[in-house]
Specification:
- The chain has 551 residues and is mainly α.
- Helix content is 70%, strand content 4%.
- It has 24 helices and 5 strands.
- A 3-stranded mixed β-sheet has the order 1-2-3. Strands 4-5 form a two-stranded antiparallel ribbon.
- A hairpin with a 7-residue loop joins strand 4 and strand 5 (519-524).
- Helix 7 (134-143) packs antiparallel against helix 8.
Length: 551
């Protein structure tokens, strides 16, 4: 299968899987991963060689994810929650590291009977367990439009967690090499290399952001903004791949820097990138699922996977609770952050591959299979738990925009259900009295059964008074204009708004259904947008109020 055809299958299959799984009220990332397992382990359409050949796409996807996470980490967020972020970051990371290191060392000692090797393996598993999955976690938050203290904390932790996982891994790898007699570099040398990688990654992202900032100062067209933004992101990812550095950190630095250098102007740029990303996300998660090979698991590996998964979850949840409690984080963060940090993906697999290179034979195979299988379990269960956490915290739907509401609303959600209507036999003088007591400019005319028969507007009345000779004899039915456009309550709002824009309609009557002219409301274009804007504002105030109410 050629690459173009493969991508067609991956994107189409992933999109269908995501849509089907959403019908079960499960995050769409789970559907993509299941499709990846089917295409890889079940049908063999995506081989190990294929996933390795497509590594550049995976790296770019991680870069996009880091970039979009960085967009959320503005200066005001760190000013408000900065201390909490770092206390929780180290608490949850170290909690998982210590619990998993101890438990997996004990299991490996029972299996191998070799204390030094068991402790070395435990250190490696502990370091790998500290990593989270920015992609899966952030994707759930974006899918459900979450906003609030828990969301802010999750985004900060998953953004910074890769650096902590790398730090712990370097230390654990050095200790493991010493225990197994394969180490040659000193601790100082190892730490200097690690420090250089982190500083270099941050510097790369910062310099790319400055370059993008200078370009955007002279560019206003959306297509050019998208071109420069993607070029900068590709530059960061491409350069980071040369020394084999995880692209999330430099891409995140690029996002953070540009979001804070251009806080107002950058919002449009991030929206453009967001529209561009769905096929990339789908491909990334399908390929992640294709990594799984269940046929290579032995019984003792399954036992090790169970202990690794359970004690990693216990470490993350206990560490998150302790860090949130100690730092004075809001109650929703203390209660639900732990279950939102359980997904694990690309970074953990990358560290496992590195670790397997210092062990031989069965031990190397064990590291790969345990990490990949546990990662699969957490990629399936983790996003579901993230959804549960943010839903329990009351943050779902609080980061919604006017465009989002228009897409999900129907006409009945915003229509005026009690419009001022005029009976068809009402004399003109009394019609004028109705006008004087209401502020509407648009009046449906109805018969005795509330069926719509016409429309009267202020301009219509002005024309009538141009000929006063007949004005006194006229009834509402005589002056009403015929109804040219109407809609029903269950029509998608987006469709009707587009129709009103196209034909320059300020109002449109709403009837009970297509086969009935019974008037049930009026959709006012200006009032609709006022209602939507008010709803967006209320949701954002609710997000800000969660921290105050639960602190």
């Amino acid at each position: 299968m050629n690459v173009v055809l493969l991508f067609a299958v991956v994107i189409l299959g992933g999109a269908l899987g995501a849509r089907l799984i959403q019908e079960l009220h499960v995050p769409q990332v789970v559907g993509c991963i299941i499709v990846g397992i089917l295409l890889g382990d079940v049908f063999g359409l995506i081989t190990t060689e294929t996933t390795e050949a497509l590594e550049p796409l995976t790296m770019f996807a991680l870069g996009v994810i880091g970039f979009m996470i960085g967009a959320e980490l503005r200066a005001e967020v760190f000013k408000k929650y900065g201390k909490q972020f770092f206390v929780i970051l180290f608490s949850q990371g170290l909690g998982a590291f210590f619990l998993v290191a101890v438990v997996t060392s004990m299991v490996m000692w029972v299996v191998t009977g070799q204390s030094h090797t068991s402790i070395a393996m435990g250190l490696v598993f502990g370091a790998i367990s500290s990593a989270t999955a920015p992609a899966a976690t952030a994707n759930v938050l974006w899918e459900y439009k979450t906003r609030g203290p828990l969301t802010a904390t999750i985004l900060a932790i998953i953004a910074l967690d890769d650096a902590l996982a790398l730090l712990l891994y370097r230390g654990a790898a050095t200790g493991a090499k010493a225990l197994t007699g394969t180490g040659h570099d000193s601790v100082v040398t190892t730490m200097l290399v690690l420090f250089g990688e982190i500083v270099g990654a941050v510097a790369l992202g910062f310099l790319a952001a400055v370059l993008l900032y200078l370009f955007l100062k002279f560019v206003r067209a959306e297509d050019k903004i998208l071109e420069f933004a993607l070029a900068s992101l590709l530059l960061v990812v491409g350069v980071s791949m040369i020394p084999r550095i995880d692209p999330i950190l430099p891409a995140m630095t690029l996002g953070i820097t540009i979001a804070n250098l251009m806080p107002r102007e950058s919002k449009g740029m991030f929206k453009l990138i967001e529209r561009f990303t769905p096929p990339i996300y789908i491909s990334f998660f399908v390929l992640a699922g294709a990594h799984m090979k269940f046929g290579k698991l032995s019984l003792w590996m399954v036992i090790l996977i169970i202990f690794y998964t359970l004690f990693r979850a216990a470490g993350k949840m206990t560490g998150s609770w302790f860090g949130a409690k100690y730092s004075g984080a809001p109650a929703v963060v203390r209660k639900y952050l732990g279950i939102c940090l359980l997904p694990q993906a690309g970074v953990a697999i990358g560290l496992a591959i590195l670790a397997s290179q210092q062990f031989q034979g069965e031990l190397a195979h064990t590291i790969i299979m345990v990490t990949m299988t546990a990662t699969f379990l957490m990629e399936i269960l983790g996003p579901i738990l993230v959804k549960v956490g943010v839903k329990k915290a009351g943050e779902v739907g609080l980061n919604i925009t006017e465009e989002d509401l228009i897409k999900i609303y129907t006409v009945k959600d915003v229509m005026d259900t009690k419009p001022t209507s005029i009976p068809q036999d009402l004399p003109l003088q009394q019609i004028l009295e109705v006008f004087s007591t209401t502020d509407s400019l648009y009046y449906p005319v109805v018969d005795a059964q509330s069926r719509l028969i016409g429309i009267i507007t202020i301009p219509d009345i002005k024309e009538i008074f141009a000929n006063r000779e007949f004005a006194g004899w006229l009834l509402a039915c005589d002056v009403a204009e015929p109804v040219l456009d109407k809609t029903t309550p269950n029509k998608p709002l987006e469709e009707i708004i587009e129709h009103m824009r196209r034909y320059h309609l300020e109002n449109i009557p709403v009837v009970a259904d297509q086969d009935s002219d019974e008037l049930v409301g009026v959709l006012d274009y200006a009032k609709t947008f006022r209602k939507i804007s008010a709803e967006v504002l209320n949701r954002r105030k609710a997000a800000e109020g969660i921290a105050l109410a639960t602190g």
